[in-house]
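During the reporting period the student researcher (J.K.) took over the structure-prediction task from the postdoctoral fellow and processed the backlog of single-chain submissions. One of the processed entries is reproduced below for the supervisory committee.
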Amino acid sequence: MEPVTCSDKTFSVRVKNSVSGVTYTATQTTGYHSSLPGTGGDIIFSGLTFGDGFSVSATNGDGCTSGATTCGNSSSSQQSSSIHTEPSKGSIKALAAPNPFNDRIRFTLQSSVSGKGSVALYNLMGQKVATVFQGYVQKGQVQTIEYSVPGSQRTNLIYVFSVGDQRTSGKLIGLK
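J.K. obtained the following C-alpha cells:
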C-alpha cells in the first residue's frame, strides 16, 4: 500500500482499476460509510477520518463480498482490483515488510523534510497499540526500524509514519 492522502483530520483512499459490475464500500468505526460502483477505472473515497481505521470491501452482482481476498468459485472468471492510496503533499514514505507478517516487521522510512518523526501501530478499531519509533528524521536519509511483534499484536494492523504535519499509513496483515 502506498501513502495515504492526508490532512490533519481526513484522508482519501483510491481503488485503482475498479471492476465494472462490482460495488466498492468503504467503512470506518465512526460511522463513515460510502459505496461506489466500479467503473473499470479508479474510484476515490474521500473524507475518511484519520485514526479511526478503515476497510474497503467489494461486492459482485451475485452478492459475494470480499475484502483483501478474491471471491467466487474456481470455475468463474475472476477479475481483481488493487487499493492504492496517494499522497496529497510533500513526500514521506514508509514500507513495512514482510507483509503479511508473523513476529517481526521491518519499517523502511524516508522523508523529504527533517523533523520529529514517529511510527505508531493501530488496531482496526483505530486504537493505538504501540509506538514503534519516536525520534528525529533526517531529510533524504533512509531509516530502518526493526520491530518484534508481541503475540497479542499479531493481527491486522495499521501503521502511521509521521514527520511534522505530514503522515503516511498502510495496512499490515497478521498471520495467525
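The committee noted the following: The chain has a mean pLDDT of 76.
J.K. will present the remaining backlog at the next meeting.
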